[in-house]
Amino acid sequence: MVVPFVYAFNILNLYFFMFRIMVLLILKTKFERERTMDGIIDIKDLCFRYSQENEKLDLSHVDLHVNEGEWLAVIGHNGSGKSTLAKAIDGLIEPESGEIFVDGQKLTEESLWNIRKKIGMVFQNPDNQFVGADVEGDVAFGLENQGIEREEMHIRVKEALQVVNMQDFAKHEPVRLSGGQKQRVAIAGVLALRPKIVIFDESTSMLDPEGRMQIISLIKQMNREEGFTVISITHDIDEASLADRVVVVDDGKIMGDSLPEELFQKGNELIDLGLDVPYPQRLKFELNKRGIQTPSEYMDEGSMVNWLSRSILKN
Amino acid sequence: MDKMLLGRYINGESLIHHLDPRGKLFLSFYFIVIVFLCNNWETYVLMAAMVMLFVKLSDISLGFFIKGVRPLIWLILFTVLLQIFFSSGGQVFWHFGPFTITDQGLINGVFVFCRFVLIIFMSTLLTLTTTPIEISDGLESLLKPLTKIKVPVYEIALMLSIALRFVPTLMDETTKIMNAQRARGVNFGEGNLLKQIKSVIPLLIPLFVSSFNRAEDLATAMEARGYHGGEGRTKYREQEWRKNDTLAVILFIALTGALIFLRN
Ligand SMILES: Nc1ncnc2c1ncn2[C@@H]1O[C@H](COP(=O)(O)OP(=O)(O)OP(=O)(O)O)[C@@H](O)[C@H]1O
Ligand SMILES: [Mg+2]
Questions:
Q1: What are the residues facing B101 on neighbouring strands?
Q2: Could you tell me the CATH number of the domain that includes residue A245?
Q3: One GO MF term, please (chain B) (predicted)?
Q4: Which residues 6+ apart lie within 8 Å of B178 measured at CB?
């Protein structure tokens, strides 16, 4: 009895969903124009709030400099403003004040589309960024938007799918893919556009451990071997530890800027900073607290077990 | 819902599968129009022969087509009965109050039944041999002239294809949330209607909220990938008009001629 009712609702919901996307696409952001700056990304005194009624700024006087070829990790609590910062860089939201320079060009209404070509974004939810009907259609979506010739598109789609090792799935629909595979398709979509900067907004957080490790090693390959500037927003300590530099965001402000090694000395404070600290790491902090010396580098479960066994043998 | 909305595509390599979706869409609509030219046995037999030929060419078993008729069987029977009981003319077999059964009425009933079946077979043929995305692409090209009068054809086609892509995702989610509510002791399908509707409300709200968030995420992702309207966009998927498509059109023109010749 209720099942047809649920179906009917679902159909209505689908219509609403389509309508909503349409409205969202019609609303566009606006910017004003100015000169250039050095560094691949330069943010100067950026302020933003989602609605005028908000008393607090959602981004408050943010200054950030990102070097070309760098891997920058951004960490922070839920709701601290990490995603908002990423959206501001890509011109997806309109700042209240301050300026953003990307690859020497100020972000303005005129430069917006040009700047977006230089930035690729991979988001958190694998399902909510899959636009195409199948894998190759999704990878091609960004290329279609740029008006690239069909032949060139076919070449780029094939190449990009090879990089993420999804070439055998070109004709698969999203229902037949795992979360990790969908994220790889999203990355291929970004690669096909050949941007300079790739922003990963918690792209590994909805994946199982295996999918997560695959994506992290793919990010590493993109940064180390293919020279992309990477900004990865994450709660994942493995991901953050691979970065060149870690920035901590709290309450819409940049609270810290350090090397990953320095950061991981902080022990249990890391949890307060919004990182998911894995068990071996926590155990290490507890041992340190009790005056037991542990190796200073980051340890995963395997190396922790090894170290523990060795220390027991020593005593 | 998948099936209700779009029928179901069956993978195949047949002649019909490989026809251009634009041609297939147009000819399917055209077929529905010319079915109404039929008004005697000869014309119906001709049309039925055509449809059987297409079914044969599609390499899909007849069973799938018959299944397509089933959901509409009550509507068909109702219309057929209306025809039988309310037609006048010819020899009267039976008469009661406003109802009369005449030989003309019986014949009309059979014709209406045939008309329904022909139309359903033809649209089933379209959905069985054409992927939803091809249909949406085909519609877009067919409706392109409407952009001249400011109809957002491109956007509509894109929304349609996104909606199609999200149907299974939303269905999965419904099942998930239903199970989550069941785990909390909600009983779907028990008690009177009011009770049942009440039990569904906690299901609808999360679904609604989630589709809201999805739409927002999706719009952001599309914009981040450079989507800024249909203008200046190229197409990845190719639609290719081949010899067979032209042949199909010629066949339909010949069919129309034959119908006009055969009908009274
Ligand atoms: N679309 C929106 N409209 C209004 N407020 C929003 C919107 N998106 C985020 N916010 C608010 O802005 C603040 C920062 O959110 P943001 O999404 O940037 O956090 P985050 O650091 O990415 O968190 P998470 O780790 O959960 O992804 C939060 O207080 C949030 O409630
Ligand atoms: Mg976020």
A1: B94
A2: 3.40.50.300
A3: transmembrane transporter activity
A4: A6, B188, B203
Residue nearest to ligand 1 atom 25, measured at CA: A78
Express each pLDDT in B170-219 by its tens digit. 888 888 888 887 888 777 767 777 877 777 787 788 888 888 888 889 88
Same-domain status, A53 and A181: yes
How far, in Å, is the centroid of ligand 2 from the Cα of A226?
26
Contact of B123 with B65, CB cutoff 8 Å = no
The count of structural domains within chain A is 2
* pLDDT band at A32; cut points 50, 70, 90: very low
Q: Is B214 on the interface with A (CB under 8 A)?
A: yes
Residue A20 forms part of a structural domain: no
> Do B114 and B245 fall into the same domain?
yes
What does the block give as tokens for B178? 């239903």
Number of separate domains in chain B: 2
Range of the domain at A283: 279-314
Query: Lowest mean pLDDT: which of A89-98, A173-182, A300-309?
Result: A300-309
Task: Kindly list the distances between the CA atom of residue A60 and the CA atoms of A47, A249, B190, in Å, as whole numbers in the listed order.
Answer: 5, 10, 53
Range of the domain at B49: 2-130+240-262
Which atom of ligand 1 lies closest to the CA of A86? 18
B187 contacts chain A (CB < 8 A): no
> Whose CA is closest to A153, among A134, A136, A168, A133?
A136
In this complex, do B222 and A25 lie within 8 Å of one another by their Cβ atoms? Answer: yes
Among A30-34, A37-41, B78-82, B150-154, name the most confident range: B78-82
The pLDDT, as a whole number, for residue A3 is 60
* Residue B182 sits in the same domain as residue B247: no
Q: Is A200 helix (H, G, I), strand (E, B) or coil?
A: strand
B177 touches A at CB < 8 Å: no
Tell whether B98 is covered by a domain.
Answer: yes
Same domain, B250 and B175: no
| Domain presence at residue A14 | no
Best CA proximity match to B126, nearest among B52, B48, B23, B53: B23
Cα–Cα distances in angstroms (integers) from residue A137 to residues A154, A172, A184, A266, B165, in the given order: 10, 10, 14, 45, 11
Instruction: Say if residues B2 and B168 touch (Cβ distance below 8 Å).
Output: yes
**Does a structural domain hold residue B75?**
yes
Answer for the pair B105, B81: CB distance below 8 angstroms, yes or no: no
- Closest partner residue to A16 among B203, B211, B232, by Cβ? B211
* Protein residue with its CA nearest to atom 4 in ligand 1: A50
Closest CB from B163, B226, B238 relative to A145: B226
Q: A12-16, A156-160, B29-33: which has the minimum mean pLDDT?
A: A12-16
Least confident of A195-199, B73-77, B109-113, B151-155: B151-155
At residue A5 the predicted structure's pLDDT band, cuts being 50, 70 and 90, is low
With 60 as the cut, is the pLDDT of residue A31 above it? Answer: no
Report the residue among A49, A51, A83 best suited for mutation to probe ligand 1: largest number of ligand atoms under 8 A from its CB: A83
Domain annotation covers residue A149: yes
In a domain, A17, yes or no: no
What digits encode the pLDDT tens for the residues B8-34? 788 888 999 999 999 999 999 999 999
CA distance A196 to A303: 36
